Amino acid sequence: MEFNDDIIACAGLVERGDPDRFRTVMAAPLAARPVMFTLYALNVEVARAPWVTKEAMIAEMRLQWWRDVLEEISLGKAPRRHEVATPLSKILTPGDTKMLDQLVAIRRWDIYKDAFEDADHFTNYIDQTAGHLMVATARCLGECDEAVVRDVAYAAGLAAWFQAVPKLEKEKRIPMVDGRAEAIQELAQSGLDRLIKARKSRSAVSKASRPALWSALSAQKVLQQVIADPYIVAEGAIRPVQSNLAWAAVTGRW
């Protein structure tokens, strides 16, 4: 997949909307960047759709537009012309489109102000957002063990979620199923445990796929902060963690 105007546009979307992932792409091998920019641009478009309007129906329509695009791709049709949809059609398998459709669908939670139904609903949300994106990216880049990638994505998704809690609460959302300090510690520990478990199986993720996991490089330190002091989540006091992308690029580790 070569750089063209569409990929440049995708890169711009990611740089503006998800600067952390933009930096991971720029540290990845050149051949991986068009794929990563395309998938991360899709994620930017989908993640912001529920927030650009206060009209629930319009937000629903924005998400449905992307579900329609993914359905067209899954059926082997040329999708409607779009700077993100067009390059997507060149990299996705039918299995990937089904998975990304779920990523779009689960974002409906962001439109409304209902709480998560239970812990399983919350876990499913993290898995279908952070998990589906990381798995799709890793698979488009090379061979990987999906279970290992999902463990890494869960840790990264939790870390990002903890950092987003104050903003979500300001927007009148209910981000935590159980807001007790003990429950937040246990949740953070579950993410750290899955990350440690995944790292024991690094060889199950090919060298080509590893850049897809670099968005999780800061997860461990964020989760450790929350385990040490769960009150920093509500206070918005989680200290920023700078990912060591140069180290990851040289060693291939995550």
Annotation keywords:
mainly alpha; 12 helices; globular; 254 residues
Q: What does this protein look like?
A:
64% of the residues lie in helices and 0% in strands. The chain is an all-alpha fold and 254 residues long. It has 2 domains: 1-112, no CATH class; 113-254, no CATH class. The longest helix is centred in the middle third of the chain and has 25 residues, at 146-170. It is globular. The two termini are 25 Å apart. The relative contact order is 0.11.
**Strand element count:** 0
Please report which band the strand proportion falls in: under 5%, 5-15%, 15-25%, 25-35%, 35-45% or over 45%.
under 5%
Q: What's the main sheet like?
A: none
| Chain-averaged pLDDT | 96
Evaluate the radius of gyration: 18 Å
Note the total helix count: 12
Total separate domains: 2
H/E topology pattern: HHHHHHHHHHHH
Q: State the shape.
A: globular
